[in-house]
Structure formats: structure tokens, C-alpha cells
Amino acid sequence: MADGDTWRDRHPSTARILAYGTTALSALLVLLALLLPSQPTLLTPGHFIRIPVEAIFGAALLLVLPPRARRVVSALAGAGLGLLTVLNLLDIGFNEALGRGFNPVFDWTLLGDGESFLQDSIGRAKASAVAIGALVLVLCLLVLMTLAVVRLGNLMARHSALATRITLVLGTLWVACTVSGVQMAGVPVAAESTAGVIQNRAQQVRASLADEQAFAKEAGADAFRDTPGDRLLTGLRGKDVIFTFIESYGRSAIEDPLMAPGVDAALADGTKRLRAAGYSARSGWLTSSTYGGSSWLGHSTFMSGLWIDNQQRYRTLTASDRLTLTSAFKRTGAWRTVGIMPGLTKGWPEASLYGLDRVYDSRDLGYQGPKFSWSTMPDQYALSAFERLEHGKNRSKERAGRRAEPHSKPLMSFVILTSSHNPWAPLPKMIGWDQIGDGSVYNAIKKAGKNPVDVWQHTAHIRTEYGKSIQYSLHSLIAYLQKYGTKDTVLVFLGDHQPLAKVSGDHAVHDVPVTLVAHDPAVLKRISGWHWTPGLRPGPKAPVWRMDTFRNRFLTAYGSQPGSGAPRPAS
Hints:
Elements: H1 7-10, H2 12-35, H3 45-48, E1 51-52, H4 53-64, H5 67-98, H6 108-122, H7 124-158, H8 160-180, E2 183-184, E3 187-188, E4 190-191, H9 193-220, E5 240-246, H10 251-255, H11 260-276, E6 280-287, H12 295-304, H13 311-318, H14 325-332, E7 336-341, E8 358-361, H15 379-399, E9 411-417, H16 442-447, H17 452-455, H18 459-484, E10 489-495, H19 501-504, E11 511-518, H20 521-525, E12 533-534, E13 544-546, H21 550-557
Parallel strand pairs: 1-4, 5-9, 5-10, 6-13, 7-8, 7-9
Antiparallel strand pairs: 2-3, 6-11, 6-12, 10-11
Helix pairs in contact: 2-7, 4-8, 5-7, 6-7, 7-8, 9-13, 11-18, 15-18
Protein name: Sulfatase
Organism: Streptomyces siderophoricus
InterPro entries: Alkaline_phosphatase_core_sf
């Protein structure tokens, strides 16, 4: 073997094949990156059989640059294209789950929340494997895209005459297709999507940064900011008020042909049962600030009277002293305020924003049973613990005709039910209230439930199980009110957002049902002007309000007066 012989010298045919293959793969990788859409519905073969104008301009630029500049520009362009591909993939995931694209300013923290959700759903080991795989994919895209563009740039430099002719032909063809409007499979052959994506990204970043100042100004305007406690919620004094969010309880659950029959039957049956117990209800629609997830954005929008649709707004709100719907009860001094938060597994600083005297998270509710995928405990158990720890103490004193310390005041409760959180398998089922105990009884129920992996193989199965989860949450809440409610109980329950697009469908509205239930007719009389539908099911023509308008409407309906004044002892 001669000195200096290389592998290429010894195997020239194989080396040529590998070189051609690597070049072809480089070109394919660049084209796929330039044509990759941000919407999952656009991932069709026809979308990738197009001529991207960015490739033509990029090739023309590399052909006229000197060698050193060409290598630098190629490397930068490749890294940029790799980053753009990562952002497009994030867009696809966010559009599929949350019904919106990825915001490069606000949404990075949601990736950590997504990993936490995976840990709760499939276990820490599998979630870690997914996270490592995603990180490896990102690094590979950045490195391989850079190498691909550099390789193509060097190849064009070595064959500049041929590359120039091909670039001119493709440029002419692109112009002709643009002028004549040539399409393939309903998609224009002449593509210019990447430039538009980059422009949209830049506009999104500018708008996101400008939103901080706009929101700060908006948050500073609050008609009830200085209202003293004796002028707040005078129409609900003496009532036990419960605000309850049902996870992912959206309009689709009530109106979708596959899910609606079971959910509507549960609402109709619940209306009948509560009417027999002396309760009446009115229902309407609220447009949530979030979709498919990020429940805390919906909660804070409803409670604060501000439109909280991103993490920056949420952080600004939680650092403020904004009067929330629940903290208004606290300000009066007339209610004990508590939170039942089975979805919380660690400290929750937001309790001060919501004016809660006591927060019970998953560690405080005494549950000794199994998790149901993401949900730490069944809704019926969480409500049973609420009765045992707080509400039942007041009920026993009411039956004795007195209220005594330490819970001498009526309750205002903020309850979040989580059994309808995805992946909707396995699901708990209703059992006798006297059978719940410490929750150990749910071990057998979980074991008999469905596997999330099996459910998520078919969209129809996912939607069916989602509908069943909403039915379970509704049955739990209605049965609780039927068994433990009193003549002074007032219940407001609603969804925080629609389920993800795989369930609610592409381009679904962001509406969620909202219902107010009371035993005292005077409570419902105060909202007669809202024109809500009688019963637990809002009608198709019931009013649709933005969720951030509810706080002021509710405060006003129940006697709150905007403005300041000398505080007087609460009645």
C-alpha cells in the first residue's frame, strides 16, 4: 500500500456514492427545513413539493461571495435554519396541544411544565428519556443543518458555472409559477414561506416586548382597587360561596356529537337532582384566555378581571396587589377563605394574590390512594376532603344553630378539580361517600382502568374518554352539592379551557361553560339581567363573555360599589 493512500483512494466507487448521497441528504434537509410548516394540518406531501425562493436567493448569494465570507455566511445560515426548524417544530407541538404557536419570548418556561406533566403521566424515567431525546434532536438539527449548508456552498463554489445555470433556471421557474399561480395538490408551487415566518417571528417578539408596558398600564386601572370591605359583596353575606374549576371543561364537551350525549345527559340529570334538592341554576359561556392547557392563565383571568394569556402577564399579575374575585371576599373580613388544590405538589406563592387564609394542596388532603395519571387524586375524594377539613365543620355548627371559632365565618372556597386533566386514562368512578376513606379503595379502580398508551392510539378513543372524564367531574360536584350543600350554599363552577385540538378539533372556539347554582332565589334574582340559560347546560344562544369581564360583573351584581371610602366594620 503506497504511503498517503486514503480510504477514498482505495474505494473510489464507494466514496463517490457516499459523497453523492451526503450531498443529496444535505439538499433534502435544507429543503425540508425551508418548507416545514408550523401547522400540523399542513404536513402533507404537496406542501413539500415546492420551490422555496429563499433557496434561490441563498444560492445566488453564496455564488458571489469570496471563499472565506462564503464559509462564514454558510455556517451562520445553516445555524439559523436549524434554529428556525426547532421553532417550527415547537409551533407544531404548541398548535396541536394549545391551539396557538410557540412564543419565543414567553413560552420557554412551559417546556419545563411539559416535562413535569410527562413525569406525572408516564413516569420520571420515561419523561427523562423524552427530554434527553428532544435535546439530542435539537443539537443534531443545529449541527447537521450547519454542515449541510456549508457542504452545499462548497459544492456550488467548485461547480460555479453549473450552479449558476441551475439557480437561474429555478429562479425563472419560480417567477413563472408565481405569475401563473401554478399549484400542486392545492398548494402554490412557488413558495416564500420562510421569509414570512422570519418576519412574523420578528413582529411577534416586538409585540411581546411591547405588551409588557401595555399590560402594566391596563392592570393599573381597577375600579374596585380601593373599595373598602364593607362595600364589597354585600349581597352574599352569610353565604358559603364555592368557586370551582373543572379541568378542560370546554364547549366541545357540550356540543360535539361524539362527546355531547353523555355530558348533556349528566347535566340534565344534575339539573333534575339539584332542583329536587331545592337548588336552581343559570348557565352561560365565557371565552377563556388559554386553550388546551396552561390552566393557571384561565384561573387568573377569571379571578383578576385581566386578560392573562401569557407567562409574562401572569408573572406581572402575581407580583402585584390586584384585587381578585377571591381576595375581595378576604377584604370584607366576613368570610374564611380556603383553597382546595389537589393538583399542587409544592408551595404556591400565588395564595396571597387570591387572598386565601388556608391552602390545601395534594400533601394536605390525606390521600393514600394511587394517582390517576397526572391527577393526584379523584375529584370525589378531593371534595370529600374539603367536606372533612373545612365545609363540614361549618355545617355541623349550622345544624347546632351556632357558629363557633375557629371557623365561625361562612366559607369562600376556591376548588380546582383535576380528574378531567389529560391524558384521561385511567379514570376513577363514583363510589359511596362513606366508602372513600383515605382513598385506598381507588387502588382497585385504577388497576381496572384503561392504559393511556392504548387510549391515545386512536383519536376517537381519546375523545370518548375525555367525555367520560367530564361526566365524572360533573357527577362528583353535583353529588357533593346534593349531599352536603345547605340553604346558604352558592356554587359557581366553570371550565378553565377547551381540551387540546385532538379532542376539540382544529380552530375550535375558546369558550367554556360557566354555571351559578344557589338555593336562595334572591341570589339568582341578582343575575337575572345576565340572561343566562336556566339549568346546568348553557344554551347555544346563551351570552358569550370574555372571561376577564366576569369579575366586575359578579362584584357589581352582588352589591359591590366601585371607589374608595372610609372603611366600616363588615356586617
